[in-house]
Specification:
heterodimer; A: 460 residues; mainly alpha; Potassium Channel Kv1.1, Chain A; four-stranded mixed sheet; 22 helices; B: 250 residues; three-stranded mixed sheet; two-stranded parallel sheet; 9 helices; 5 strands; 6% strand; elongated
Chain lengths: 460, 250
C-alpha cells in the first residue's frame, strides 16, 4: 500500500535526465574518491640495479671481514644460568648474532648424531679458531642457542617466552638431529611448562610450524584452528606468516575435516532408534512432529528434540560455513550441547535424560569426533606427497648410499626418519663444499617413489 | 604495435652502428649503439661505464665490449623495442609484461616505463575479473610495481574477498601480500561506507535540493535513490560491488 501511494505521489519519474546525469556523476565521483583514498601499503620496493651495485661495493670481502670481527661479542648478557665460559671447553659455537659459546664436543656429539658425524671428520687446516679452540658458526641466534644449550647441559632450563620461540627451538633440534632434546621440548609443551598456542594464535603457529617442517606441531596447530572461524579477520596479522601452499593446505585440511565431522554427526542424527542418540527420543516437543515414523521397539517417536538436532547439524547447512564458523570438534561440542540444552530448559524430559546420561553421551560424541578427526591429516604429514620429495632427496644425499636410504624411507613410511632430514641443511651451513647434485637427487627420489607406487599396484 | 610471439632469433637487434653488445642471461647478444642505452637509463649508464673500465675482460668474444645483463633475451628484446625507434613489442603474457615493467623500473627508465604502460593498456586493458586481477596483483607486488598493484587491488575490491571466496587462489601469493590486500580491501569498504553516508546526508551534495519528491527521507534524497546508495555503502565483504557500483572506466 505504502509503495503504491509512494509511486502515485512521487514525481521523480519526471526528473530531467540532466539531474539524473548529475547525480550519477556525483555518486561516481564519491566512489572513486573512496577508492583513491587508500593505497596498498608496504608494496615491497625492488632494489634498482644501481642500488644493487652500491650494495655490492659496500659488501666487498675485506670490509665484511673487518665488520664481523669488530662485532664479535663474547660477553653479551644472556638469560642465566648458562655459563658461556665452561671450563674444559674444546669447541666454540658462534651464533648468528656473533655470540660465542664455549662448549664440549663430547656433549654435543652425545645429543646430536649430526654433530657426532661432523666431529668425526678431519679438521681442515685453515679452519677458523678462537683462543686455540675450533670455531663452528651456526645460523641460530644467541637466545635460541642459549636455550638449546640449557636443555643439553645439567643446568636450569631457560624457558622460551613465546610459542614461536619454542617452534624455533624445535626446528633447531630437527636441523641438528637432536631427537631426544626435541622430544623433551615437546613434553615440556604438553606439560604446560613451555608456552603453547592460545586461541587464534594457532593459525600463526601452524604457518610457522609448516614453514619449519615441524610435522607434529603443524598437525596440532591445524587441528586447533578448527575451533575458530578461518577468515582473514581471524587470521589478522598472522596471515603474514603464511608462505607457499600453507594457507591453501590449511583450507583444504579444514574442508576434509568438516566432511568427516559432518558425516560423523549425521550418523548420530540419522540413527533410527539404534544409535546413542536414542536416549533423547520421547521429548514431549517431538510428539507432535510430523513426518517421522515410530520406533517399533520403543513405542516412542524416533525423533530427536530440536535442540539436539541443532547440535548435530552444526556446520551442515552451507559449504560457506566451513570457513565462517568454527567446526564441531571434540573440544567444543560439549559447550555447544550445553548451550543448546539451556535453550530447552523448560523440558523436564530432556533435563532428566541429561542428568542421567548426558555426560556419557557427550563423552562418546567427543570420542567419535576425535576418531573421525584422527583420519584427516595436513599434507605435510603424508610422506607420499610430492612436495616432500626434496626432503627425501636431502636425507638420501646426506648418507653414503642414497638409493638404499631413500627406498627405506619411502618403503617404510618412517616419519621419524623423515623428520631428521633437515639435518642436511645444517650440513650445508657447516660444510659448504659438501657435494650435492640436486638434479640427481630429485631423479633418484622420483624413481624411488615411482618404484614404490608400481610395487603397490602389483601387490594389489 | 607487435606482440612478442615471433622467435627471438629473428628479432635480435643488429644495428650497423652498434658499439656495444648487451648479453642476456640466456646468452642472446644484442648489438646496440651505446648512446641510446645510456641516455635512457642512468642505471645502465653506470653499469656500462663499470663494464668498460679496465681491467674487465669484456672484449673476450668479439671486438665490441660486452655487458652482461640478468634479464632473459625475450624481455631484453621487448625492452629494446621501447628504447629504439622501432614498433614496440608488447609481451603477450601478463607475466612477461610485469617483468618488462619491472626491468624498466629497476633501470630507472622513466619515459620508457610510461611508454610501456601506455602500450600495455592499449593492447591488454586492465583486468575486470577477479582471477586475472589476483594474478596481476601477485605479479605486480612481486615486482614492486605500485601502479599495477593499485590497479589490480581496485578491481579485487569490487568482489567478495575472504578465504571462502578465493580458496583456490590462496597459493597465488605469499601471506604478506594477501594481508596487505585484505587491509586495503577493508579500508576501501570503510571509506566507501562513510563517504556514501555523507553523500546521502548532504542531500546528494545539494543536487537534489528542491526536488519535489513526496517520498524523501530525512536526508531529503528520494527514497529510491537513498535505498540504492545505502545498499552500496552498507555492503559487507561478501558482496560483489562490481555490478552495482557507479564506475568510470579508467
Amino acid at each position: 500500500m505504502r509503495d503504491e501511494a509512494y509511486q502515485d505521489s512521487c514525481t521523480c519519474s519526471s526528473v530531467s535526465s540532466q539531474i539524473i546525469y548529475n547525480i550519477w556523476e556525483a555518486l561516481t565521483s564519491v566512489v572513486h574518491g573512496s577508492f583513491e583514498k587508500v593505497s596498498v601499503m608496504d608494496v615491497g620496493e625492488q632494489p634498482t640495479r644501481l642500488m644493487s651495485l652500491q650494495a655490492e661495493l659496500a659488501l666487498s670481502p675485506e670490509q665484511g671481514k673487518e665488520g664481523s670481527q669488530a662485532q664479535v661479542n663474547l660477553t653479551t648478557s644472556l638469560p642465566q644460568p648458562l655459563d658461556i665460559s665452561l671450563p674444559d671447553a674444546n669447541l666454540i659455537i658462534r651464533s648468528s648474532d656473533l655470540v660465542d659459546f664455549r662448549v664440549h664436543k663430547s656433549i654435543l656429539a652425545m645429543v646430536s648424531p649430526f654433530f657426532n658425524d661432523i666431529f668425526s671428520l678431519p679438521q681442515l687446516p685453515d679452519s677458523e679458531s678462537v683462543d686455540g679452540l675450533p670455531l663452528t658458526k651456526l645460523s641460530e641466534d644467541a637466545e635460541l642457542l642459549n636455550t638449546l644449550l640449557s636443555m643439553i647441559y645439567p643446568v636450569r632450563v631457560v624457558v622460551p617466552d613465546s610459542y614461536e620461540k619454542v617452534l624455533n627451538l624445535l626446528a633447531a633440534c630437527q636441523k641438528y638431529d637432536m631427537a631426544q632434546v626435541q622430544s623433551s621440548i615437546r613434553t615440556e609443551v604438553s606439560r604446560g611448562c613451555f608456552p603453547a598456542p592460545v586461541g587464534t594464535e594457532a593459525f600463526h603457529a601452524y604457518a610457522i610450524a609448516c614453514s619449519k617442517g615441524l610435522i607434529p606441531e603443524t598437525e596440532n596447530a591445524a587441528r586447533q584452528t578448527l575451533d575458530y572461524p578461518m577468515t582473514f579477520k581471524t587470521l589478522g596479522e598472522g596471515l603474514r606468516s603464511f608462505d607457499g601452499c600453507a594457507l591453501l593446505n590449511l583450507a583444504r585440511f579444514r574442508k576434509r575435516c568438516r566432511k568427516k565431522l559432518v558425516t560423523c554427526l549425521k550418523s548420530y542424527h540419522d540413527a533410527q532408534g539404534t544409535g546413542p542418540s536414542r536416549i533423547w527420543f520421547g521429548c514431549p516437543d517431538t510428539m507432535t512432529s510430523p513426518g517421522y515414523g515410530w520406533s517399533s521397539r520403543q513405542s516412542r517417536p524416533a525423533v530427536l528434540p530440536s535442540w539436539q538436532r541443532q547440535v548435530l547439524s552444526r556446520n551442515n547447512h552451507s559449504k560457506k560455513q566451513v570457513f565462517v564458523d568454527p567446526l564441531p570438534t571434540p573440544s567444543n561440542i560439549r559447550v555447544e550441547y550445553l548451550k543448546a540444552l539451556l535453550s530447552h530448559d523448560s523440558c523436564t524430559f530432556c533435563l532428566q535424560v541429561h542428568a542421567r546420561d548426558g555426560p556419557a553421551f557427550c563423552a562418546e560424541l567427543e570420542s567419535t569426533l576425535a576418531l573421525a578427526l584422527d583420519k584427516v591429516h595436513t599434507p605435510s604429514f603424508d610422506p607420499k606427497v610430492s612436495e616432500n620429495l626434496p626432503l627425501y632427496c636431502r636425507y638420501a644425499v646426506t648418507r653414503s648410499s642414497p638409493q638404499i636410504q631413500l627406498t627405506q624411507v619411502l618403503g617404510t613410511r618412517d616419519i621419524s626418519s623423515v623428520l631428521s632430514n633437515v639435518a642436511y641443511d645444517a650440513a650445508f651451513d657447516i660444510i659448504p663444499d659438501i657435494e650435492f647434485d640436486a638434479a640427481v637427487a630429485v631423479a633418484v627420489a622420483s624413481d624411488a617413489a615411482s618404484d614404490s607406487g608400481n610395487q603397490e599396484t602389483q601387490e594389489r | 604495435m607487435l606482440t612478442s610471439d615471433k622467435p627471438l632469433q629473428n628479432l635480435l637487434f643488429e644495428y650497423r652502428g652498434a658499439d656495444l653488445i648487451l648479453r642476456s642471461h640466456d646468452s642472446h647478444h644484442f648489438r646496440v649503439p651505446k648512446s641510446y642505452i645510456v641516455n635512457g637509463s642512468p642505471v645502465l649508464d653506470e653499469l656500462i661505464q663499470r663494464a668498460l673500465d679496465p681491467p674487465n675482460d669484456v672484449h673476450s668474444e668479439t671486438s665490441l665490449p660486452v655487458v652482461q645483463l640478468p634479464e632473459s633475451g625475450v624481455i631484453l628484446h621487448n625492452l629494446l623495442t621501447f628504447i629504439f625507434p622501432v614498433p614496440p613489442l608488447v609481451p603477450s603474457t601478463t607475466e612477461n609484461a610485469m617483468e618488462l615493467l619491472f626491468v624498466a623500473q629497476k633501470d630507472q627508465m622513466v619515459s620508457v616505463l610510461s611508454h610501456i604502460r601506455l602500450c600495455i593498456a592499449q593492447q591488454n586493458p586492465p583486468p575486470t575479473q577477479l582471477d586475472p586481477a589476483l594474478h596481476m596483483y601477485s605479479l605486480a607486488r612481486k615486482y614492486g610495481l605500485h601502479q599495477e598493484v593499485h590497479q589490480a587491488a581496485q578491481t579485487i575490491s569490487k568482489y567478495p574477498m575472504d578465504i571462502v571466496d578465493i580458496e583456490d587462489k590462496l597459493d597465488m601469493m605469499p601471506g604478506t601480500a594477501l594481508y596487505e590486500l585484505w587491509k586495503y580491501y577493508e579500508k576501501v569498504r570503510a571509506f566507501l561506507a562513510s563517504d556514501l553516508k555523507e553523500f546521502r546526508t548532504s542531500g546528494a551534495r545539494d543536487i537534489l535540493t528542491g526536488l519535489p519528491c513526496a517520498a524523501s527521507g530525512s536526508s531529503q534524497v528520494p527514497r529510491w535513490l537513498d535505498d540504492y546508495i545505502e545498499s552500496i555503502g552498507g555492503l559487507t565483504s561478501s558482496t560483489t560491488l562490481g555490478s552495482i557500483l557507479p564506475w568510470r572506466a579508467t
